[in-house]
Design a protein that fits this description.
The chain is of the alpha/beta class and 298 residues long. Helix content is 38%, strand content 16%.
Length: 298
């Protein structure tokens, strides 16, 4: 029997999560000035799993359990405030966590926002500005292109401007850029990189204001795989972004580069214990599997 690529990835992530939870039991209670940025993509009830294509999905029920877990032991803070919280001399009594969401799916408004409101949890939604308001799957979302007919459009449709404005009006959500076309950085020219960051920032600043045009999430996001190059980082700085996140594995400290911050994926398979282990820095098992990482979509 052949095991599908996506099925294998889910199994590896689940096993790695168990290993992280066990390793946390022997890590002691050392407290460091560090914080965890979690990233999500799709939050929807799909009803099926594709064995070949990763859906990057967490169900709304599981997402609510994860947020409830985080609020019991950590302070969830806006991403833009994280560096300042780490730099202050004030004692950090509880772990710091920030929530981020890549791609800008309509289910962020319909599924995620009500849960954020329920727990008073702030978040940053990174949107692909060239896709806002479109009614077809985003080209880079191979799962959606293949499976869009099997699920409600909410599972893959990009947010529209009315939904984005509603998110902003909640007072809990900050919008950031996930580029204009979600191009792979390693395949872009310097001109394309400048266009990706500059155009997306101009659009967000014009429609939503300055506060929603200063945070950036690199598509694909992995420095080791070449998609967050020095030239891409330079373009992000030049465009005026104040903070930018990668998918590089790690926790944030006061020494972290503000325009290439590491993050951790919040996976569907993450139980409360696994999520807590991740947030508290039990990353050794993940570093082992990350070594074999391919070019995941993010």
């Amino acid at each position: 029997m052949t095991i599908g690529r996506a099925t294998l990835k889910r199994t590896v992530k689940q096993t790695t999560g168990w290993a992280a939870m066990v390793s946390r039991l022997f890590a002691g209670n050392t407290r460091q000035r560090q914080a965890c940025i979690f990233y999500y993509h799709r939050v929807a009830d799909l009803g099926f799993m594709d064995s070949q294509l990763d859906d990057w999905n967490v169900t709304p029920a599981q997402f609510e359990r994860q947020i409830q877990t985080l609020t019991t032991f950590a302070d969830i803070v806006p991403l833009i405030e994280l560096p300042g919280r780490l730099a202050t001399k004030t004692e950090i009594k509880r772990p710091l966590v920030s929530l981020t969401f890549d791609d800008g799916y309509a289910n962020f408004h319909s599924q995620v926002l009500p849960i954020l409101k329920r727990f008073g949890a702030p978040a940053t939604a990174f949107v692909v500005t060239g896709s806002i308001g479109k009614s077809a799957p985003m080209d880079f979302d191979h799962w959606a292109v293949s499976n869009s007919a099997k699920v409600d459009a909410e599972a893959w449709r990009p947010l529209n401007w009315k939904e984005l404005e509603s998110c902003v009006e909640s007072g809990l959500v900050t919008i950031g850029s996930h580029s204009h076309q979600h191009l792979r950085g390693s395949l872009c020219t310097a001109t394309q990189l400048a266009d990706e960051v500059g155009l997306s920032r101009d659009i967000l600043r014009s429609r939503l204001g300055e506060a929603h045009s200063v945070q950036y999430a690199y598509p694909y996001g992995n420095s080791r795989l070449g998609d967050v190059s020095e030239s891409y980082v330079a373009a992000v700085k030049s465009a005026g972004f104040k903070i930018a996140v990668t998918t590089n594995l790690g926790l944030v400290t006061s020494e972290s580069d503000l325009v290439s911050l590491p993050r951790l994926e919040a996976h569907m398979m993450d139980s409360p214990g696994v999520l807590k282990a991740k947030a508290l820095g039990a990353l050794a098992p993940y570093r082992l599997t990350d070594h074999f990482r391919a070019a995941y979509r993010a």
